[in-house]
Structure formats: C-alpha cells, structure tokens
Amino acid sequence: MTTNLDDKMIHEKHYEQIVSTMKDEPYSRFLGMKLTKLGPGTAEAELTPDENMLNAHRTVHGGVIFSLADYVFAAASNSYGKTAVGVTTNVNFMSAGKPGETLLATAEEIKKNHRLGWYNIRVFSDTELIATMEAMVYRKSQYFVENES
C-alpha cells in the first residue's frame, strides 16, 4: 500500500513528467486550458473562453465550465503519478461566466486512501465564484510514471 509520504515523494521526484502529462491532455489543449499550478493533490488552471464557447444567451456554456472543473480534478487526482479515474462528480452552477473574462479553476484534495480520493473544485469568472464541484476518483494500481516501489 502506498502511504501519503510515498505519494508526496513520487510527486516531487516525477514532478516534471506529471506536469508534462497533464499539460499534454488533448481535450484541454483543444479548448485552450492552461495548467498554472500542480501540487500534491492540488491543481489550478485557467481558460479564456472564445466566441465558440458561449451559449445562446451569450454567456459561457456550462459544458465549458464543467470541462475546466473536470480538468483540474484530473490533474489534482493524478498528481502523484498514479492513474486515477473519475467515478462521480456533482456540479453546482451559481452564476454565469461572461465573455472576455478569464475562468480560473482550483482543485483541492479533501481525503484519499489506497483506492479512492475526494476533491473539491471551484471555478471563478474573474473573481466571482460561478461553480463548485465535488468529485471522487478511483485510484488504480498502475503508475504512469516510472516507480520503483
């Protein structure tokens, strides 16, 4: 069983590879998301929506907001170099994202054990909180970084 200390050591040892893997995620690149921070169990990313990301009401489409939240969720939960896959998410949309405003999403690990991890995600449009997400991952046995243990 991997301990929290082991996870943190793997994060530090393989930080560059983990960041590279998360930044190279095809869907996030397609949307123009930028990973700005990655720590053990935490992540931050931003996106400036373009005209194609607006809904009929000329605000940021909920799917774009969800995608950004899901991206930081994936980055935070995979930050230990161990493959983690989403199991559940619950999103609350509180306010609309406005055209021209940069979206910022943050993810924070609440708790994890050998097989599961729980995360809180927040999405801001400029400084206004527009969405929250609670999410859980299944932590697989496989690592996507070379691990001696």
Structural commentary:
This protein is an alpha+beta fold and 149 residues long. It has one domain: Thiol Ester Dehydrase, Chain A (Roll), CATH 3.10.129. 28% of the residues lie in helices and 40% in strands. It has a six-stranded antiparallel beta sheet. A hairpin with a 3-residue loop joins strand 4 and strand 5. The radius of gyration is 15 Å and the shape is elongated. The termini are close together.
Largest beta sheet: what is the strand line-up?
1-2-4-5-6-3
Total strands: the figure is 6
Contiguous low-pLDDT stretches (5 residues minimum) are: none
Per CATH, which architecture? Roll
SSE order, one letter for each helix or strand: HHHEEHEEEE
Shape: elongated
CATH topology: Thiol Ester Dehydrase, Chain A
Distance between the termini: 10 Å
Taking the sheet with the most strands, its summary is: 6 strands, antiparallel
- What gyration radius follows from the Cα positions, in whole Å? 15 Å
The portion of residues assigned to helices is 25-40%
For the record, what is the CATH homologous superfamily label?
A: Hotdog Thioesterase
SS content category: alpha+beta
